[in-house]
Design goal:
elongated, 0% strand, mainly alpha
């Protein structure tokens, strides 16, 4: 985590230094730093996948719920990443729309889980 924090701080400092003279280069530096940080985060994927394999054992045949949960996590990270890039480039309205689209997509994906939960609750009621 220390490396990730240092890369973030160095990226911001470099972008701030360049922003005075050539602001478009500051955006490129910021995007490059974001991609580098993204790849640092991806390196943690092995640990996450081992836990997902354990979770798959708990779900048994109903792996569709695990698949939905993983898609939701992916959509969350992707929309947050894209939104932050848009806001950093000065297009906060576009970033807000990316976030809204991500939230609506997550809501649509989570409906089968919500319906299954309601069915389970309905089974307990007389």
């Amino acid at each position: 985590m220390t490396k990730i924090a240092l890369v973030g701080i160095v990226t911001v400092l470099c972008a701030l230094m360049v922003k005075e003279g050539r602001s478009e280069y500051a955006t490129y530096i910021s995007m490059a730093g974001c991609l580098l940080l993204f790849f640092f985060g991806i390196s943690r994927l092995e640990a996450i996948l081992s836990v997902v394999d354990r979770l798959r054992g708990y779900f048994g045949e109903n792996t569709q719920y695990l698949s939905i949960l993983l898609k939701i996590v992916g959509i969350t990270y992707l929309s947050e990443f894209a939104s932050a890039l848009c806001r950093d480039a000065g297009f906060s309205a576009v970033g807000g729309q990316v976030e809204l689209a991500g939230k609506l997509t997550i809501m649509a994906l989570s409906l089968p889980i919500l319906l299954a939960l309601v069915e389970v609750i309905e089974g307990f009621l007389p």
